[in-house]
Structure formats: C-alpha cells, structure tokens
Amino acid sequence: MEQAEQKEIKKEPEVDLDLDGVQETQIDLDDKVEDKHPSEIKKEEVDLGYTDIKTTSEEKAETKKDEIQEEETLQETKADKKEDKDDLSKVSDNAQKRIKELTYKYREAERREKAALEYAKGLKTKYEDVNAKYQSTDEEYLKQYDARIDAERDKVKRQLKDALDLQDTEKVMEANDALTKLAVEKEKVRISLSEKEKAKKEKKEDKPETTINQQINEQAAPQKI
After folding, report:
1. At what angle do helices 169-220 and 53-166 cross, to 10 degrees?
2. Contact 158, 179 (CB under 8 A)
C-alpha cells in the first residue's frame, strides 16, 4: 500500500520555475541564534477574551472609593441639614424663652401696679373712714358744744337778771361780757356746722361722677396676656 502511494507521488509532474533575472542570495547558516533563557524571551500578549484581573480590581477600588466619597458627601449634607435644623430649633427655643420672659415681666409689672393701686385704694378708704369718723365726731362735738353754750347763756341771763334786780352794776357788766363771748362762740359753732353740712352735700354729688370715671378707666384698661 505504501509503495503504491510513493509511486503516485513520483508520477506527479514537475514544474519548472523561471529563475531568469532573479539574483541569488547566499544565506550563512553559520550565524547561530543566540541562546536565551526562556524567561528572557518576550512573550507575546495573547488575548484570551477576559479582562485583566488587576485592571478590574483597580476599577472596583475606584468605584468603591467614589461610593465612599458619595456616602461621606451625603452624610455631610445630612449633618449640615441637621445642624441647620438644630440652629432653627435653638432660635425657636430662644424666641420662646424671650417671649416667656417678656410675658412674665409684663405680668409682674401689672401685678405690682395692681397691688400698688389696691394699696392706694386701701389707704384712701382708710383715710376717708378716719376722716368721716373725725367729721362725725367733730360735728357731734360741735353740736354738744353748741348745746353747752346755750345752757351757759341761759345761766348768764339769769345772773344778769339777778344783777339788774339788785342794781349791781359790776355784776351786770360781767354778765354782759359773758353773754358777748358766748354769742361769739355760738356763731363759730354755727359757721363750722354750716361748712360741714356743705361739704357733705358736695361729697354726695361728687361720688356718682367718681364712680362713672372709675368704670370708664377699668373698661379702657389693657387686656391681660
């Protein structure tokens, strides 16, 4: 079988090559290729169809770094928003405290003013009561004094009559002087009682007007906070 194949190969026609005009080149086979260590031979890069592991790791690291930076930026933004919110809360708290302080001061001032007015009213009422008692006592005293003057005048008149009957000139003069003095005292009492009566009438007329003015002032007073 093999001999038959060799015969067939030998029977293939030979082809003549036209070598006219071709320069002959001598090849020196003595130049040997310098032996190199296998590690020194540059290996050709072969694309095996997959991504370099190192490059992928670096890209992942960069991506992770970017994600971390984004996370930090997001956290900083949240922190800034929280700080802004805290600042607003502080401002609101300070405003509320200030309002409470002002309200307390206003109410305290109003309380003191009210206490002062009540105290003044109390003093006024007390003074009016004392004055009324004094006026009443004084009026009563004047009336009693007027009655004593009348009694004394009656007594002096009897003495004057007796002196006239006895024609005692000295006694008559003494009686007349006493009657003159009693008449002067009687007039003083009359004037005092008349003035007191006039003052009482004026006070009664002035009281309704004072009550009306007080009601107007109370209505015009500011409302409490």
Report:
1. 160
2. no
| pLDDT tens figures, 19-52 | 555 555 555 555 444 555 555 545 545 455 445 5
Outline where the chain has alpha helix (H): 2-10, 53-166, 169-220
Tokens of 33: 């290729």
Any idea what DSSP says for residue 167? T
For residue 167, is it left (φ>0), alpha (ψ between -120 and 50) or beta?
left
Query: What gap in Å lies between CA 138 and CA 188, rounded to an integer?
Result: 13
**Per-residue pLDDT tens for 176-210?**
999 999 999 999 999 988 988 888 888 777 765 55
Phi, psi at 10, each rounded to 5°? -65, -30
CB atoms within 10 A of CB 162: 13
Tell me whether residue 170 is exposed, middle or buried, using C-beta atoms within 10 angstroms of its C-beta: 0 to 12, 13 to 18, 19 or more.
exposed
Residue that is written with structure tokens 């009566």 in the block: 197
Determine the distance from the C-alpha atom of residue 157 to the mean position of all C-alpha atoms in its chain, rounded to a whole number. Answer: 86
- Residue 45, classed as helix, strand or coil, is coil
What CA–CA distance (Å, rounded) separates 220 from 217?
A: 5
> Comparing C-alpha atoms, which of 108, 179, 110 is closest to residue 149?
179
Give the integer Cα–Cα distance in Å for 132 and 85.
69
